Amino acid sequence: MSESRPRRVAVTGLGAVSSLGLGARAVTESIRRGRSGIGPIEQFDSAGFERVLAGEVRDFRPGDHLDRIDPDQWGRSGQFAAAAARMAVGDAGLDPEELSRSRAGSSFGTTNGESGVLGELSSEWVRGGLSSLSPELVGRADAGRIGAAVNAELGLTGEAQTVGTACAASNYAIGYGYDLVRNGEADFMVCGGADASNRATHAGFHRLGALAKDVSRPFDAHRDGIVTAEGGVALILEPLESARERGARVYAELLGYGMTCDARHMTNPDAASIAECIRGAHRDAGVKAEDVDYVCAHGTGTPANDRTEVAAMREVFGDRLPPVSSIKSMLGHTMGAAAGFGALVCCMAVHTGFLPPSATVREVDPALGPGLDCVPGTAREARPRVVQNHGFAFGGNNAITVFGEVAQ
Amino acid sequence: MSGTVLDIVGCGVLSAAGSGLDALAEALEGRRAPEPDPADAPGGEEFPPLRVRAVTGFRPAERLGGKGLSRLTRTDQMGMVACGQALEQLDGLDDDARRRTGVVLGTGAGSVRRLGEFTRDTFVQERPYMVNPSHFPGTLMNSCAGQTAIRYGLTGVNSTLSGGPTAGLSALRFARNALANHRADRLLAGSVEELSAQSAWAWHRTGALGRDVAVGEGCAVFVLERGSDGSAGSSGTRPLARLLSCEAGYADPGAGAAALGRRLADCVRDALESASVTAEDVAVVAPGAAGRFGWAAVEERALRSALGTPGPRRLPVHRVLGETHSAGASLQLASVLAHWRSADTAERVGLVTSLGPDGQVGCAVVERAGTAAG
C-alpha cells in the first residue's frame, strides 16, 4: 500500500447508454418520472419464446458518440461501454487530451461480455459448421474487449480491467477503481459496466422460469421475475482534492465498498452473506447503518431475490429500514451494467436530491414484513446524504458501493 | 499498493505437461515430452487440422467425484482441481481462515464450448428456451470461481477477470489490490482456459497461431498472501516465491503493433522499478506472445528494449504447452516457478510478460524464495 495518506475519491462524470435514453440526464429524468424502458425484443429473433419483452437500447448510433474507435471493429457491449465513457468524460469537463496523458485506466463489469458477437458465432456454427466461423467475429469475441474499447476510445494508457463477476460486476469494477485512485496508483479511473441483449441469456432465464410476464415488479406481492435488458454506464473517479482544484462538479464521494462470496449455491442468493457484505461496505465507508438514507436495491423482482435481500437488510438495519427501491422496475435487468446504473442513479440522487422509485409496484408484498418503504410510483423529493448500492450475482458474488454527499 | 510484496505460498497447475510443478519442470527441461493424446481432446465435435495439447492425464472424477460432474464445464473442473492442489500445500485452513480466503480467476470468455453449445440449443431445439437449465450457470464467466468457492468453502473476496492472454495478470493485479487493502488475507489467483473444438476452430480460422504452435489448455493458480514480514494473514507456509510487482497498461492496437511493444517495454521498466530490481537482476523471462503470429517479434523487441540484448534466458513455454490464451500468463508464471524448482542456478528474479491483440499489456516480477537481496 502506498505510504501516503489515502485520497478521498469523487465521482465527477457520468455517462449512460440505456433503454431510458442516452446520458445521465436523460436516464435520471426518466427514472424520476417512473418511465419504463421495456419493449419488444429487436436485438435477436424472439420467435418461439413465450416472453418477448426486454429493456433494449433503441436509436443508438454508436458513431454519433464515439470519437476515436470505429464501431464496426467492436461488439455491441464494447460500443456501449466506450460511448458511455466518452459521455462521462464530457460530463466531467475533462480535456480528453489531458486525460489520455494522465495516469488513467478503466475498469468495467460485464456478465456476458461480447454476447452479441458470441451469438452470431453460434449461429454460424449452426448454419455452416465450425469451419465457417468468421475470423472477424472471432477477433471481437473476448470479454476483455469491453475495457479495451474504453481505453482505445479515450486514448488511455493505464490498465483496462474487465470484471466478469456477472450481475454484480460493475460494483466490483467501481470498487477496484476506487482503490487505485484512493491509493494514488491512478489519477483517473473510468469505471462502469456493459452488456448487450442476447439470445442465450434470455433463454437461460426463460428456462429457469425467472422472466416476468410483462414488466419486473420488485417488492410487489405478485412479482414474477426479471426482464432482460442491456446498456452501458460509466463513472469518472478522481481524487476529491484535485477535482475541487480544477473546479469540477462533484456528484458524490465514493465512500467505500464491500465484497463477499456466498460459497453455497450458484443461483440462490444467501441472506447471511449479503448482510455481511452490507456490514463490510459500511465499515469500509466509515458509516453506521443509521447513517444510510437510501438503498438502491439489487431488486431483480424474482420472489427469491427480493425476499432474501430484504431479510439481509433487516439483519443489518433492524426495524429501521431506510427507503429501498429498484430501478430494475424501469430499466429491466441490465446484467453486468446493473450495479453501474445503480451507482449512477445513487450519485444523481445525492447530487440533485431525490429518491428513485420502484415504479411498477402495485401492492407491496406483505411477506416482506412491516415498514418496507420501496418508494412506489415516481421519485420522491428528498435529500439523501449517504446511499448504498447493491449488486448480487450468480456464483454467489456480492458487492456493495456506498456514496455520500459532498459539500460543494 | 505499488510497494506491496506478496508471498506465493502454494501453486496448483494443470497443463499438457501433466499435473503439478515437477511435471512442468521436467517438460520444460525436455526430460519429458508431452504426448498429445487425441483421445484427450474434449467434446464431440471434430477438431480442425491443428496440433492440440490437452491437459495430460486429466481425470476430474478422481479429484472431484462423479456427482454433478456433467453440470460443470471443463473450465470449472480445471479451476477446481488446480485450486484443490494449491490448497493441499497449506497446513489447512480453519473456518476463520476460509472466511478471509478467496478465489480470483482470469478467463477469456469463460467456457467457450459451454456457451456455444448452450446458444446452439436456442437455435436447434423445438423452442428456443428449451436449453438445459443446469448448464446455464456454466455459461457465465464467473462460474469457475463460484464453483471453486463452493467446493472449498471460501467466502472471501471472489472475482473473475477477462483479458485474453493477459487475463492471468489481470487476476494477479485484482488479487494484489484486494490483499494490499486488507480486503482478504489469502487469495487463490490465476487463470484458466479449456481446449475445445469451438476454440480450436476459432484459432484455425483466424490464422493467429504462430508456425507449428499447438492449441493448448490448462490452469495455474497461486496462493497469495501479504508478505510474511507484514501483519496477519500469513498461513505460516514457506513461500515458493515472492511476487514483487505486477503492472498493466494499454495501447490502442489501431495505432499499430509497435505501439503495444513500446507500451510493454515501459510497463516492464515500471515493474522493475516498483520491485526495486534492475534489468540486470532479471535472470529468466517467460514471454507470453511467443505462440502468436506477428506478436512474438513485437514482444521480443520490447524485451530487448527493456532488458538489453540478448538479455536473460527465455523459457520456451509455448513449445511445451502450446498457446493457452487466457491461461497463458499464469502458466508462464508457473513455468518460472517450475524452472526454479529443478534448476541448480543462482537465478533470483524472473519476469513474466504478456500482450494481446486487443491492446492490453502486462508483466509480473517474481523473486525466488530464499534469495532476497540485502
UniProtKB/TrEMBL annotation, chain A:
Residue ranges annotated for the Ketosynthase family 3 (KS3) domain, each copy included: 6-405
Superkingdom of origin: Bacteria
GO molecular function, one term: 3-oxoacyl-[acyl-carrier-protein] synthase activity
Record-level GO BP terms: fatty acid biosynthetic process
Keywords noted in UniProt: Transferase
Pfam families listed in its UniProt record: ketoacyl-synt (PF00109), Ketoacyl-synt_C (PF02801)
InterPro entries: Beta-ketoacyl_synthase, Ketoacyl_synth_AS, Ketoacyl_synth_C, Ketoacyl_synth_N, PKS_Beta-ketoAc_synthase_dom, Thiolase-like
Family to which this protein belongs: Belongs to the thiolase-like superfamily. Beta-ketoacyl-ACP synthases family.
Protein name: 3-oxoacyl-[acyl-carrier-protein] synthase II
From TrEMBL, chain B:
Segments crossing the lipid bilayer: none
Keyword terms, alphabetized: Acyltransferase, Transferase
Taxonomy, superkingdom: Bacteria
GO molecular function: 3-oxoacyl-[acyl-carrier-protein] synthase activity
GO biological process terms, semicolon-separated: fatty acid biosynthetic process
Family matches, as InterPro entries: Beta-ketoacyl_synthase, Ketoacyl_synth_N, Thiolase-like
Domain Beta-ketoacyl synthase-like N-terminal, first and last residues per copy: 8-229
Protein name: 3-oxoacyl-(Acyl-carrier-protein) synthase
